[in-house]
Structure formats: C-alpha cells, structure tokens
Design a protein that fits this description.
By secondary structure, the chain is mainly beta. It has helices at 31-34, 117-122, 131-138, and strands at residues 14-16, 23-29, 39-45, 60-67, 69-74, 77-82, 86-89, 95-99, 105-112, 125-127. The strands form two sheets. The protein has a seven-stranded antiparallel beta sheet with strand order 7-4-9-3-2-1-10. A three-stranded antiparallel beta sheet has the order 6-5-8, with no helix packed on it. A hairpin with a 2-residue loop joins strand 5 (69-74) and strand 6 (77-82). The chain starts with 13 loop residues before the first strand and ends with a helix.
Length: 140
Amino acid sequence: MTPLVFKNMADCAAYRIAPGDSNYFALIFDPAGEGADLVAVVEIFAPGGKTPPNSHSRAHEMFFVLEGTGRALCGGDVQPVKKGDAMLLRPGAEHVVENTGPGKLYTLTVMVPNQDFAELIRNGTRVELDAEDRRVICGA
C-alpha cells in the first residue's frame, strides 16, 4: 500500500443514497477505494434539502462548509452555518444538517471511523455532478 494517496476531485464518483434524498455525495476517500477506516465526501444539499435525523454509535462526524448556508440541529441546539464554518458531532449525537439558503449547500464531511457510511453511499445510485458542483468542488 502506498503511503500517499492522491486524487483529483474531477475523478470522484457521486452517489445519492436513496431516490428521494435531497443530498448526494462526491466520494473522496473510503475503505473500499483507499483502505482507510474513514470516509471523506463532499456532501451536496439541494435548496431546502437536509439529512434525515441520524447518529453514529462510534464515529465522530465533521462538517466543513465549503459554500452556502444552513443550520445544524443537535441535542436541542440549533446552529446556523455558513462558508468557512466547521462543526464536529460526537458519537451518539442525533443530528440533522439542512440547507437554509437559496442555492446549494456544500460541505466537506468526514466520518471516523467509517462505521458503514461509505458502504451506504456506494450502494446508492450514481449521479452526475452538474456545472455548479464541478465549479465548487474542482474549481472548474
């Protein structure tokens, strides 16, 4: 196994977990692709989109807002988020992240350990990134 793994975001596959979901994921690194016990994605939320309420028994989950505005709901707290903000969710914390802005919300989302999140994403439906997604993710 090589000590350095490099990818260009233009080469990353994107998936929607379930057909009715309002968010999808550009998969950067995961156990199946790179043999790492983490999953790193760019999570893309449609306007008005949000995650279902969820928690992870062992994993920490980090969100770094690349573009857009939204809010995080966790443990009764509501935290507005915008470009440049980061949040860390501890294991067991039920949470929702939602897009409150007029455009898409983009987050770099990392979960450690993976706790089957990457497998859930890879079992979803492949989607194509549009021009806006490529601009934000790849700088193109």
